[in-house]
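Hi everyone, sorry if this is the wrong subforum. Our group has a chain we'd like a structural model of before ordering constructs, and none of us has done structure prediction before. Sequence below.
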Amino acid sequence: MTRDEILDSVRIVLSEHMTHPHMQAFAPEARLNEDLYLDSVLILQILLNLELEYGLAMPEEAIARQELETVADLVGLYIPKSAVPSFAMTGGTTDEGVHGEAYYDIKVHCFVSCVCDGLKRQGLDQRPFYFGVWDAKFTVSDRFELLYHSPEISQDFFRDWFTQLYRVPIREWYDPARSKAENLSTLIDLVENRPETGSVMVMLDMFHLPERENKFNQNPFPHYLMLQKTADPEKWFVHDPDYRWEGEIEREKVIHAIMQPTVGGGYVFDNALARNPEPQDLKAYFEACFVADTNPLVDAVRGIVNAHLHGRDGLTLAELASAVRELPVITIRKYAYEHGFAFFWRALKLPAGEFEIWCEEIEALFQSLKNLHYACMKLSQTGDGEQAAAVFDRLEESDRLERKIKDRLGEVFGLWCDQNLPAILLPRRAAG
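Answer:
Right subforum, don't worry. Here is the predicted structure as tokens:
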């Protein structure tokens, strides 16, 4: 197919097969997220429909691409091109790598990003705190739906460990026993009287802040960010470390997103109090976070697929796509493994070349989980049980890749303990 034919196919898929409500902005130069309101899941839906309706199969290695910005970029995926060299994930130059000052500042968990924001400003290393992110808690509903946010999930684990590691008390100001109006009054007072080095964090529903990019386009989309007052009483300064954005937004619009019944939460803290963690505390934190023998996300998706495949509790394959819709929100947490490797690599002065190899393995895990999501969507949309084999192949691949990453990470953790902890704190090693 020619470029114009592919473009027309994308238009038909969006307008006729997906009944997309924002077609008035459709054009080659239209931005997928900002103009067409297409998130990563809807883009996968386009790819799937192009394959099923027009035979335009997408190579698996292209499914996980993140640099798509416009409709033209999407069409370009199907146009043959010369290979483009890839670059290391560290963000540093080839002379620096993992041992230099520059590194890719991974943002994959909004609460963690907020509390870590001040650590770098204080010259402290935030990377160890990301030990808790790669297997951060999620839930599976009683209808076998994967959820990154639910009433069963709290931030207590991260809050308590942040205080133990960095000596920064984090106080929860939001009281679920009080009304939304009462909590809003508390928030306004905290913002108005925020100390110079203090931080006021609040949960809001990003779906109701159309001025801000919502890369997952979830509805609702609970998200933590931080607020400050400005010289203009009608505006608040919004600082969103997870999305690397800050700027002024009309106060009433922010309040509207905060007051949604889908969200509720907030904390205050002062990172000026932060101190470097003690080695024994880092050891305890890593051990509290590290799930060595299983991969909870893969296990959960496997259970969800089996429940829909076998019709448990009346479920159907048609419901599977919806059940795994939030998989991309959790998948991106796997990039936190890079922070773990980077911390130990720098501390142990291990070869930078091997670090880059493990970054490639982490990228392969991310792509495998993205391909798994696509395979689940295909199984759901076709209703063809024979497509289940591809889903289980992706599950096994993801499981294998993550176990490999965890095995090496566990090894370097052991080396780090040997170098940084007195023998009295280490388990006795067998003789011989």
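For your construct planning: Confidence is low (pLDDT under 50) at residues 82-95, 428-432. The first helix runs from residue 3 to 17.
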